[in-house]
Design brief:
Blueprint (H helix, E strand, L loop, with lengths): L7 E6 L14 H16 L3 E6 L7 H6 L4 H25 L4 E5 L8 E2 L2 H9 L3 E5 L9 H12 L3 E6 L4 E2 L11 E2 L1 E3 H6 L7 H9 L4 E5 L5 H6 L6 E4 L1
Parallel strand pairs: 1-2, 1-6, 2-5, 3-4, 3-5, 6-10, 9-11
Antiparallel strand pairs: 7-8, 10-11
């Protein structure tokens, strides 16, 4: 068996990854594709945790533009992440992977309350853990929640799942000559004001020496190759 570079990972997915046309709503077939990718990694012996956004269900920016209270808009987004967590949980368990959903906002009928030591124990037992409801506080993105949870559970890396191969110096869809970085420091990422990941999340990762790997999750081989130590995507590290 090939030695793994990362043995415990936190996978950060956008809500749009679950969406149908235009990235909106919940598409069950997309959840099944995500579950298949995760199962492949899980079967390799990797301990996997997830954080999923809610952009497919609710975009707080729309509410803010109409004068909506920021905290209310953020709490609605947190509830959206719970819905997304449940559909991925269902897809994973139908694929034969034991899963636990943990929520930063207490809702015991559908999710366990987030307890750090319990989350780590679930991972040690081979369960995939899905962290939902962000950090339980408004004004923070799910990117920041991903960096925090990854730090708390001692993850080796945060894997930011995107639809592009890595971090570029400009938008590769608009500029065919855009150059992709294979490596960069957290500070360089922040200095360039890149928007692939929230700056608060990157700062938190930098302070805790947590690497971030940005890759194309929809490339059939990228995730597995990265876990085996191949040069894939962009690694943001110290």
């Amino acid at each position: 068996m090939t030695e793994l570079k990362y043995k415990r990972v936190l996978l950060k997915l956008s809500g749009e990854a679950l969406g149908g046309e235009g990235g909106l709503g919940i598409n069950v077939s997309e959840a099944e594709v995500i579950a298949t990718r995760i199962k492949e990694v899980h079967d390799m012996g990797v301990e996997v945790a997830l954080v999923i956004g809610a952009g497919n269900l609710w975009r707080g920016k729309q509410g803010l533009e109409r004068g909506m209270d920021r905290a209310t808009a953020d709490y609605m987004g947190m509830l959206g992440t719970v819905m997304n967590a449940l559909i991925v949980m269902d897809a994973l368990e139908r694929a034969g992977v034991f899963t636990r959903v943990m929520s930063a906002i207490e809702m015991r009928a559908i999710a366990e309350p987030y307890i750090r030591r319990r989350a780590i124990r679930h991972l040690e037992k081979g369960r995939v853990v899905i962290f939902s409801a962000g950090m339980g506080n408004p004004y923070f993105s799910t990117d920041t929640a991903a960096a925090l949870r990854a730090t708390e559970i001692g993850a080796d890396v945060v894997i930011k799942a995107t639809k592009v191969d890595g971090v570029y110096d400009s938008d590769p869809k608009k500029n065919p000559e855009a150059q992709m970085f294979e490596h960069m420091t957290h500070l360089d990422f922040l200095d360039r004001r890149l928007t692939v990941m929230d700056s608060t999340a990157v700062t938190l990762s930098m302070e805790n020496h947590l690497p971030i790997l940005v890759l194309n999750f929809w490339d059939n081989h990228a995730l597995i190759a990265a876990l085996r130590g191949e040069t894939i995507g962009t690694l943001v590290h110290d």
